[in-house]
Design goal:
The complex is a heterodimer of chains A (308) and B (380). Chain A is mostly helical and 308 residues long. Chain A contains 13 helices and four strands. The radius of gyration of chain A is 26 Å and the shape is flat. Chain B has 380 residues and is α+β, with helices and mostly antiparallel strands. Classes of the chains: A mainly alpha (308), B alpha+beta (380). The complex binds adenosine-5'-diphosphate and magnesium ion (MG). Magnesium ion binds next to helix 2 of chain B. Adenosine-5'-diphosphate binds next to strand 2 and helix 2 of chain B.
Chain lengths: 308, 380
């Protein structure tokens, strides 16, 4: 065989291998296109169109949806005035999701620690209890929470019977109710990654910490928390991101009065009949999530490098 | 010559008397530790009394599972005794949590913090004690020099070899200048050569720092070479406490004699005794003079202990104390170990360091055994 023939054969073999690879990748690429890129593309396109009168869109380019997020057009002279209403909903959502993240961390850490320090055979049982809520539909769980915190609910009746309070605490349909609901819903998402981290913790290091004059708190902050950092970060991301887009909890426990981003977006596609604005709000929410994930990726990357 | 053993014994006792007057660092009284209850109860420590003096290298020696770690963890504060008290410098520390005791531990697994550098590990204790950054830096530098790891200050601990990790663990525990340093089988994970080096290093570190070391090991040779005093433990009890020579030359307990070095243990009964000297008739009829240590009841049926080096082959003109048939000769150059079977059926090993030319060393030949006076001992 001459050199030219040989290289031609090589090129042919290489091309075939490439084709085979593409063929194998095909289904995956198709699924990603269908499930992720296509809907996202539609959302991006819709956000730059004009709302139709009875919902839907009319094919007319407009940036009104993005402008509307921050400004209000005066109906008489058409001038733009700053309108913080939507921004406030976003900020409140961020605040509530962040609060839920901190709340679940404070409740979840001792829980995960408790389970991780149980004898191995007992841990399965406790983990089962943690995942038990997943067996029930979230809608039903949220209604149950509603029954517990309403004025005539379990909490108020107990407190009144114990004569700790005279009038029921009005928790339902407030930010507090949404906050409690979010913590309840997302607690397992915090406990499970924390447990995964703490379970791997070498408790002899905890003893070494005590031995070297660290109090309980110092051991927690200087030994346990740094070693459980991957779990803490993963738990925070798993609570904050879905918390930011929460829909059912604020819908039911906030009574539609205390909106979060999810409810606001739903309204645009429903009663407000403003699909472009709904699309724009969804994209802004997504941008927020991407920012959070980038921060997470950087933190995780630093961690990996430090342990590399 | 006759009274050599005795004189050494008296001297050591006098020395021990002087040492007793040294201050006691750790003192434990009637320590009991039981894990679990009912039929699952494990009696890890049964009524342990111990005094560990200031500046001494004290070793807890015993087979695996005898309660060494449990005793050490109780001194560190990781376990509460079921009953009994522990004092440090005369103060009751029984219920004090670990972080309030001026006692540090070198863990068998080293337990170095993986998220900190070597220097941060060593400075951790001082940081927790609230020392200033400058103080910590200075002390960390000194500790790094002490364990010869200056070049490794900013390494991560998983980039170190086993021996280096061991030295970091040591430096970390020594940095806060504890009153007492606890070491739980710290050399067990090292290979033989490194272990020998670390034994010397540890011993000189102890002398240099003047800190009381409580060292745990199941290796009798390690205990004998390193310690000022040794406590021999078995099944949650301390059988004997003493200097290495006491433990080796003058064991009071059959287990101690057997555990430390090679020894012949022969059954017999006391026929007469005078003071602390007894005449013991062995099962094959020979009568041997033996010392009865303090605290041992020297009457009736007893066990007799004779080190292989306290016996030799009897010369042609000597009267032999014992005789046996030769089973095996192990030649070691400077000396030979001869395995003999006595008339009673018991095995007897002797270490003969002279020439063997004059003896018939064929298997089955009957040989006479001469004993060094004063070296046979009656055991509990
Ligand atoms: N936490 C524990 N729970 C139950 N038994 C234990 C525990 N710690 C030690 N033991 C038991 O106590 C005895 C002494 O153990 P230990 O002090 O570790 O011995 P050593 O260090 O001399 O090998 C052993 O029988 C051991 O199984
Ligand atoms: Mg042990």
């Amino acid at each position: 065989m001459s050199g030219a023939q040989l290289s031609a054969a090589h090129a042919e073999a290489g091309r075939r291998a490439r084709n085979a690879r593409l063929g194998l990748l095909g289904p995956a690429v198709l699924i990603i296109l269908l499930i992720s890129i296509l809907p996202l593309g539609i959302t991006v396109v819709y956000s730059f169109l004009t709302p139709g009168t009875y919902g839907g869109v009319t094919w007319e380019f407009s940036t009104a949806a993005y402008v509307q997020f921050l400004f209000e057009e005066d109906i008489f002279d058409g001038t733009l005035a700053f309108n913080p209403a939507y921004l406030q909903i976003f900020l409140r959502s961020i605040g509530l999701a962040f609060g839920a993240m901190i709340g679940t961390l404070i409740l979840g850490f001792p829980t995960a620690y408790f389970i991780a320090t149980k004898p191995r055979q007992q841990r399965t049982f406790w983990l089962f209890l943690i995942t038990l809520p997943f067996w029930t539909n979230i809608l039903i769980r949220t209604y149950a929470m509603l029954l517990i915190i309403r004025d005539e609910g379990f909490i108020n009746l107990t407190l009144m019977n114990l004569r700790i309070i005279n009038h029921p605490l009005s928790i339902l349909y407030t930010d507090t109710a949404v906050f409690i609901g979010l913590i309840y819903t997302y607690l397992p998402f915090m406990v499970l990654p924390l447990y995964a981290s703490l379970e791997k913790l070498d408790f002899r290091l905890v003893e070494a910490g005590y031995d070297l004059y660290a109090s309980r708190w110092k051991v927690l902050s200087h030994v346990i928390a740094p070693l459980a950092k991957p779990g803490i970060i993963a738990g925070c991301v798993l609570v904050f991101i879905p918390g930011l887009g929460a829909y059912i909890t604020p819908e039911l426990l906030g009574g539609g009065k205390k909106l979060m981003i999810g409810n606001m977006i739903a309204i645009q596609f429903g009663s407000s009949r403003n699909w472009p604005f709904g699309s724009a709000a969804a994209l802004i929410l997504m941008a927020l999530v991407v920012i959070v994930l980038l921060v997470y990726a950087r933190a995780a990357g630093r961690e990996a490098k430090a342990h590399g | 010559m006759e009274n050599d053993g005795e004189r050494v014994a008296t001297q050591t006792m006098e020395k021990a008397g002087a040492e007793n007057r040294r201050n006691v660092a750790i003192s434990a009284r009637s320590l009991v530790k039981t894990f679990g209850t009912g039929e699952f109860a494990v009696h890890a420590l049964k009524d342990v009394d111990i005094d560990i003096r200031e500046n001494e290298f004290f070793t807890l020696l015993g087979p695996s599972g005898c309660g060494k770690t449990t005793l050490l963890r109780m001194i560190a504060g990781f376990e509460l005794p079921t009953s009994g008290i522990i004092q440090l410098d005369g103060q009751d520390i029984t219920a004090l949590p670990p972080h309030k005791r001026p006692v540090n531990t070198v863990f068998q697994s080293y337990a170095l913090f993986p998220h900190m550098t070597v220097a941060e590990n060593i400075g951790f204790g001082l940081k927790m004690l609230g020392r200033s950054g400058g103080d910590i830096d200075k002390r960390v530098k000194r500790m790094l020099a002490l364990v010869q790891l200056e070049a490794m200050a900013n390494r991560r601990t998983d980039q170190l070899s086993g021996g280096q990790q061991q030295r970091v663990a040591l430096a970390r525990a020594l940095a806060p200048e504890p009153k007492v340093l606890l070491l739980d089988e710290p050399l067990a994970a090292l290979d033989l050569k490194l272990r020998k080096n670390m034994q010397i290093e540890l011993k000189s570190l102890q002398a240099e720092t003047g800190i009381t070391f409580v060292f745990v090991t199941h290796d009798q040779e390690e205990a004998l070479t390193m310690s000022d005093r040794i406590a021999v433990m078995r099944a949650g009890e301390i059988l004997q406490i003493g200097a290495p020579t006491d433990i080796y030359e003058r064991p009071t307990h059959r287990f101690v004699a057997d555990f430390i070095g090679d020894i012949n243990i022969l059954e017999g009964s006391v026929v007469s005794s005078e003071g602390r000297t007894a005449q013991v008739r062995l099962k094959d009829g020979a009568v041997i003079e033996a010392r009865v240590p303090e605290g041992v009841d020297g009457s009736g049926d007893v066990a007799l202990a004779i080190r292989p080096e306290a016996a030799r082959l009897a010369g042609p003109d000597e009267t032999a104390a014992l005789s046996g048939t030769l089973e095996n000769v192990v030649y070691f150059g400077a000396a030979s170990y001869l395995h003999l079977r006595l008339g009673s059926g018991e095995e007897f090993v002797l270490r003969h360091s002279g020439a063997l030319d004059a003896y018939d060393l064929s298997t089955g030949s009957v040989l006479g055994i001469a004993l060094q006076p004063g070296r046979a001992r009656v055991l509990e």
